[in-house]
Amino acid sequence: MKKIFFVAGEVSGDQHASEVIRELKGLDPEVEVHAYGGPLMEQAGAKIHFPLPDLASVGLDWIWKVFQFRKVGVELLEICKREEIGTLVLVDFPGFNLRVATAAKKAGIQVIYYIIPQVWAWRAGRL
C-alpha cells in the first residue's frame, strides 16, 4: 500500500494539500495519507498527526516555538520510519519544511516540494 505524508503548516497549504489528497484518493482509494495539517486535509482523508494551528506562527512568536518545531520535526521523521512512509510532500512553509526535507532525504524518503517558497520571499541560496 502506498503511504504518503503531507506537511502543510499554513492555512493556504491546508487548502492546496487537501485538493491533492482528494485527487490521490480518487485515483487510488487505498492510498494511506498522514499529515501535519488542518481540517481540510483531515476532511479529504488524511490522518492528522500534528494539527495545523498548534505550530503555525506569525511575526516574532516563532522564537517561542523553535523547540516545538524541532520536536515535531523529529517526531515526524519517526512516524515516517515507523509507518514506512514512502513519500513526503511538503507544501510551502519553508522555515520548517526545508529542514525536514534534508533529514527525510538522508533517511531515504522521497521528498516532493509542492508549492515551493518563492525566491523573492526567501533568499535564493536557501533553496
Mean model confidence by pLDDT: 87
How is the largest sheet built, in terms of strand order? 3-2-1-4-5
Shape: globular
Q: Termini distance?
A: 32 Å
Approximate strand percentage: 15-25%
Structural domains: how many: 1
Q: Rounded to an integer, what's the Rg over CA atoms?
A: 14 Å
Residue windows where pLDDT falls under 50 for at least 5 positions: none
Q: What is the CATH top level name?
A: Alpha Beta
H/E element string?
EHEHEHHEHE
**Major β-sheet, in short?**
5 strands, parallel
Individual helix count: 5
CATH fold-level assignment: Rossmann fold
Q: Keywords, please?
A:
127 residues; alpha/beta; Rossmann fold; five-stranded parallel β-sheet; 5 helices; globular
What do you see in this structure?
It is a single chain. The protein has helices at residues 11-27, 39-43, 52-55, 66-82, 94-106, and strands spanning 3-8, 32-37, 47-51, 87-91, 110-114. The termini are far apart. The protein has a single domain, classed as Rossmann fold (3-Layer(aba) Sandwich). The relative contact order is 0.19. With 127 residues, it is of the alpha/beta class. The mean pLDDT is 87. A 5-stranded parallel sheet has the order 3-2-1-4-5, sandwiched between helices.
